[in-house]
Amino acid sequence: MAKTRRAIQNQTNRTLDRGDLGALLGFAATHSEQSVCRKARAYTGGLPIDIAQAKLDLNGPNAVSETVEDPTVIRFLKCFASPFTLILLALAAISYITNVVLAPSGEQDPTTVIIIAIMVLISGIIDFVQSSRGASAAAALLQMVTATTRVRRRPINFDDFEVSHTETPHDSSATDSVPHAATGTADMPDAGSSFDKEIPFEDVVVGDLVLLASGDMVPADCRVLDAKDLFVNETALTGESEPVEKFPTVVHTRRRADGTRYPLSLSECTNLLFAGTTVQSGSATAVVVATGDNTYVGRMSALLRQPTTKTSFDVGLASVSKVLVAFMLVMCPIVFIVNGTMKGAWLDALLFSVSVAVGITPQMLPVIVTTCLSRGATQMAKQDVIVKTPSAIQNLGAIDILCTDKTGTITADEVILERHLNVLGEEDEYVLRYAFLNSYFQTGLRNLIDSAIINATGQLTDINNLINSYTKVDEVPFDFERRRMSVVVEDITNNTHMITKGAVEEILSVCTSVNLETHISPLTNAQRQDILRRVHDLNHEGMRVVAVAQKDNPRPVGEFGVDDEADMTLIGYLAFLDPPKASAAEAIKKLGEKGVCVKVLTGDNEGVAAAVCKKVGITVDALLLGEEVENLSEDALRKRVEQTQLFAKLSPMQKARVVEALRKNSHVVGFMGDGINDAAAMRASDVGISVDTAVDVAKESADIILLQKDLLVLERGVEEGRRTYGNTIKYIKATASSNFGNVLSVMVASVLLPFLPMSALQLLLLGLAYTLTCIAIPWDTVDGSFLARPRSWDARSITGFMLWIGPVSSLFDVLTFALMFFVISPAIAGGTWAELAAAGNTTGQALFIAAFQTGWFVESMWTQTFVLHALRTEKLPFIQSRPSAALMILTVAGIAAVSALPYLSKVSEALGLVGLPVSFFGWLLALMLGYLVLISIVKALYVRRKGSLL
Length: 950
Known about the structure:
Layout: H1 2-12, H2 21-30, H3 33-40, E1 47-48, H4 49-59, H5 72-78, H6 83-101, H7 111-131, H8 137-142, E2 148-154, E3 195-200, E4 209-213, E5 221-233, H9 235-238, E6 244-245, E7 272-273, E8 278-290, H10 296-305, H11 312-343, H12 346-360, H13 365-382, E9 385-387, H14 392-398, E10 401-404, E11 416-422, H15 429-441, H16 448-460, H17 463-468, E12 470-476, E13 484-491, E14 496-503, H18 504-508, E15 511-515, E16 520-522, H19 525-540, E17 544-552, E18 568-577, H20 584-593, E19 597-601, H21 606-615, E20 623-625, H22 626-631, H23 634-643, E21 646-648, H24 652-664, E22 669-672, H25 679-684, E23 687-691, H26 696-701, E24 704-706, H27 711-752, H28 760-773, H29 795-829, H30 833-839, H31 842-871, H32 885-900, H33 905-911, H34 918-946
Parallel strand pairs: 1-2, 10-19, 10-22, 15-18, 19-21, 20-21, 22-23, 23-24
Antiparallel strand pairs: 2-3, 2-4, 4-8, 5-6, 5-7, 5-8, 9-24, 11-18, 12-13, 13-14, 14-17, 15-16, 17-18
Helix pairs in contact: 1-4, 6-7, 6-12, 7-13, 11-12, 11-27, 11-29, 12-28, 13-27, 14-27, 15-16, 20-27, 23-24, 27-29, 27-31, 28-31, 28-32, 29-31, 29-34, 31-32, 31-34
């Protein structure tokens, strides 16, 4: 047995067992049965038991490798690994050292650490709840292979099995020196009796002969050796609902100019069966050529287990974090040095600079982001959109290109009878009645075309009357070589009629006459060409065409066969269409109005796809086929994808390559699909979109799942994504610019004032109060003009925004300084600063400082709140654009609470605040009015210069 395993090991290393997916399946499809059996080490009548066991021991079970998910604790900790959360944690650590560890005994203040910890914890918990996901995409694949299958095995022991180490050429004329190896079903030597055995899928090995019948699931990737009326449902792979016919003949691929062959697409592999697909009708014997991770499904699973590329949201949030970090690293040392130099109290300057660092940092950013995303997910659920990955909401709003498969997304994923035409190309119910009799009375596979014929007939006539007028006599079943099927019926006058329908070319080959309504005439070459031209025109419109012929009173009953399909009369043809969804054209138009370009990426025929695109309003000025995508360089492909609206005959990896090219061109790309063949493209996109009726793998690969297979639902989701981003960015920009203004104000005060303009504790409390008012931002309204085009993160715009808006806030802070230093504080303290200093009145000086700090404390809350309302919209705040009730209530409450603190004796004493005279609020209102006027002017100039406020 050890000798057997060594022999198998040597052969395995150089044959189909471990080959590349493309080469492996390409070889199996394009070479003869004998060559494939030799490479797969198949044997006449099935593998011997010990050879099968040796292969199983060496190559492992026929199962797709599972993805090892992180434990719950690790996934929870990863929710705190965002760049901005790490910034806050670093600030918390610094604050702990300066305010607790280095602080004198009795003066330790952990307030900052506690505040930051609460913010980070809230953000992480929300993110964890929203992002917790079920089984991985690879795990979903395992659900496809949990059954049993019937294989043919032998009881022979081959302990003396020997293998020649001569490399076998990969062509159909190759020979193999392995004794008893399969060389085709006709010449495989018989080494003993065979038996059929039902085994679990995981025990199937390369070289097994698998016996399949209607309803069976295919256990591994196989090459068909023998088939009878074999139709396979490949919906799980392709998303196409119509079954695919399979047969054992070799697939011939086209050659390029350099002599190499074009790679095979999935639809071209008509002699291959793929793991996880289902036999819908017929039967087959097939040889297994790939198992487990080497199957088509296994390779897709491996692709899904690879780390995903960073999306627009990930890149954008990281860039914003870098800007804020850079800003903090530049400004805080300046504040520290200036204060330390001017005041001489370096420890106080250090504590104050740390407080400034915390104050200028939008502490609520993680909470605001996750809350916005959570609120967006809830709102999208009401629109029949399920969000699996929170960041996908913003990505959905940011997309400027939507790539979509054709079937089931822009089409209805069904077949309808569009036209029933006579030979002259005119609508004729006579043709439909004969087609109905063929479809209704046949007992083979009733496919979507038969259902469409029956449904269409029922809408035009009483089918019960039609059924009762005829009696079935016999039928000639469909087969792949003829590509047609016939039914013989007898009418109430005892006349028999053979009715045949099938592929146009095959029907024409058995017709000698045509029905011209008024008479029957011989079929001429001119008529034949005219018919083919009409059929070509219908194909060009995206329709599939089936011809119908009939013959009266054929041979006697009971003796009908293929030979009777001769000398028939062509009566017309039927045109079928997978129609566009009723909402597709409207949705594509609305997406276009919102700045989203729709591109179609399909594995289907380019003619059919182009016709569908035309019907839904997608102008196809340029077309790119899969074979062209394969041959283009990266740079050439990046140029071509910009001008191309339709990509046809694409393989799964070609779809992914197109998506990657678009993303490299700085587009934010969404991909919508519902089959395994779409999973790679979904992973390559910024946001993968699927539907609830998709296969498990597609749904698990997707970030967003639509409960309605409708682009209108997606259009509403795009709008909600932009609303989510709008509320997030308005917080970042308003807070960052306001905080920047505060830092500028602190630097001015550090130079001009003999004391700190605000204590560290006051600065932290101010930040907390403002932060709490911002909790309502996720529920704020967003202007319709903002929702009209794609929005994505732009860190540079944040920097520019701060430089424009921040100094305005700082200007009014300086005016407040002047008001407090020269008017309000002297009135409260009983003299100017110079007078109090000259008199050595330390009590008066302390009261002067407290009054000054109180005034700026209150004014800062007012300006920060007013700037939030002013900058949340490009329009006039409160008049042209009203905030949400929640935001209005919280901001008013925040201003009221901060303004009231100086009048609460115990609180004001703890915070170093004093009550301010009523006159101060008169001055404050005047300052706020001037502030709103100036900020509106600067805002208008900014919009004119930059094109957008947010």
